[in-house]
Write a structure and sequence with these properties.
This protein has helices at 5-12, 15-33, 36-51, 53-70, 73-109, 114-143, and strands at residues 158-161, 164-167. It is mostly helical. The chain has one domain (5-144, 155-167). Helix 3 packs antiparallel against helix 5, helix 3 runs parallel beside helix 6 (114-143) and helix 4 runs antiparallel to helix 5 (73-109). The radius of gyration is 19 Å and the shape is elongated. 33% of the residues are buried.
C-alpha cells in the first residue's frame, strides 16, 4: 500500500487544504487579537501546510498513470483536469510557504514588521485555499461518479492542424 504513490497521495492530499484552513484561522485570530505569539504560530502553520503541497504533487504525479489506467473515459478527463489545475496552482502554494516562512523569521527578528507582512500572507493563503478547493473538486470527481454533473472544461490537449501540433 505505501509502495504505491497514488495511495500516499490520497492519504496526504488533505494537508494543503484542511491544514492550511486551520492555519489561516489561527493566523487571522492572532492578527485580529494583535497577539504576536499566536501570529507566529499561525505563520509557522501556514508555511508548513502550504509546503505540504510539494509531496502531494510529487506522489500525485508518480501515481498518475496507474490511476488513469483504472478509470473510464470521463474519470480520465477529470484526472487530467485535476493534474492541470495542480500544475497551474502549485506555484501559489510555494509562494505562500516562502512568504509565510520569511514573515515568521522577520517577525522573530524585528517584531514591529510582523504587522506589515501578515496581511500579504493571509491573502496568499486564502488564494491558495481557493485554488486547493478547485483542485480538490476535480480530484474528487475522478473516482466519484455521483459528484459529476458535467465533463471538465479547459483541458489542454494537442490538436493536429495540417501537420502542425498546437495546444488548445
Amino acid at each position: 500500500m505505501f509502495q504505491q504513490p497514488e495511495y500516499i497521495h490520497v492519504l496526504i492530499n488533505h494537508l494543503p487544504v484542511t491544514g492550511l484552513f486551520v492555519a489561516v484561522l489561527v493566523l487571522a485570530i492572532g492578527a485580529v487579537m494583535r497577539h504576536r505569539h499566536i501570529v507566529l504560530v499561525g505563520l509557522a502553520l501556514v508555511a508548513v501546510f502550504a509546503a505540504a503541497v510539494i509531496p502531494v504533487v510529487y506522489f500525485g504525479e508518480q501515481g498518475f498513470d496507474r490511476v488513469l489506467a483504472m478509470t473510464y473515459e470521463e474519470g480520465g478527463q477529470w484526472l487530467r483536469r485535476h493534474q492541470q489545475l495542480a500544475q497551474t496552482w502549485k506555484y501559489l502554494y510555494y509562494t505562500t510557504a516562502v512568504v509565510a516562512a520569511v514573515s515568521f523569521i522577520v517577525g522573530l527578528l524585528r517584531p514591529k514588521t510582523l504587522w506589515t507582512t501578515v496581511p500579504l500572507t493571509l491573502v496568499l493563503a486564502i488564494g491558495s485555499l481557493a485554488a486547493g478547493g478547485a483542485i480538490s473538486e476535480a480530484g474528487g470527481k475522478v473516482r466519484h461518479t455521483e459528484c459529476r454533473a458535467a465533463l471538465p472544461t479547459e483541458i489542454s490537449e494537442p490538436v493536429s492542424l495540417g501537420g502542425a501540433t498546437t495546444i488548445t
